[in-house]
Design goal:
The complex is a heterodimer. By secondary structure, chain A is mostly beta strands. Chain A has no helices and twelve strands. In chain A, strands 2, 5, 6, 10, 11 and 12 form a six-stranded mixed β-sheet that branches. In chain A, strands 3-9-8-7 form a four-stranded antiparallel β-sheet, with no helix packed on it. Chain A is globular and about 40 Å long. Classes of the chains: A mainly beta, B mainly beta.
Chain lengths: 112, 115
Amino acid sequence: AQSVAQPEDQVNVAEGNPLTVKCTYSVSGNPYLFWYVQYPNRGLQFLLKYITGDNLVKGSYGFEAEFNKSQTSFHLKKPSALVSDSALYFCAVREATDKLIFGTGTRLQVFP
Amino acid sequence: DAGVTQSPTHLIKTRGQQVTLRCSPKSGHDTVSWYQQALGQGPQFIFQYYEEEERQRGNFPDRFSGHQFPNYSSELNVNALLLGDSALYLCASSLQGVRRTGELFFGEGSRLTVL
């Protein structure tokens, strides 16, 4: 079965500093990987995806993610964090028929 | 361009009751998936509907059922509610076929509280 793991329940970073939210995956075959963000009491918003091609994927709101096949990782990054980036972030892997398997989520807290 | 819309946004039920949640997909999308997100957890796949049929189902009991209508909108029904059914229910839409992009678009969710 395919799965993703988010090893950190919470990540704290100061505004203006770079941020990284970690995700590792376990899949058979080529991985289709996604990042979503969830603000309090809201649904999930799509940030970016990796299907194939360049290992560095650029997404919404200045976020990017680096696909690393040898380390089976797909970490989310942003060069300069904003307080408004504070939210819950989910990594996900897609199975056939567009079913997503989500990680447990990482809460990002950006301090002014 | 309307996104995914869900109703109701909040509802409270008692154990043993039945609930129906509704979803209209993003304009142009033909596939609807339902997810359950318990407090502090990631969303869990319930099932997916395409061409008015359940195409795939997650590890949920038969108390959870659904339907897709010809206009692609969908309903999620839960019978004999349990306390553990309290959660945020998310609807997601996507597009199959040659215009498929792979990502899901989510609604704001319906928060169900079972007392």
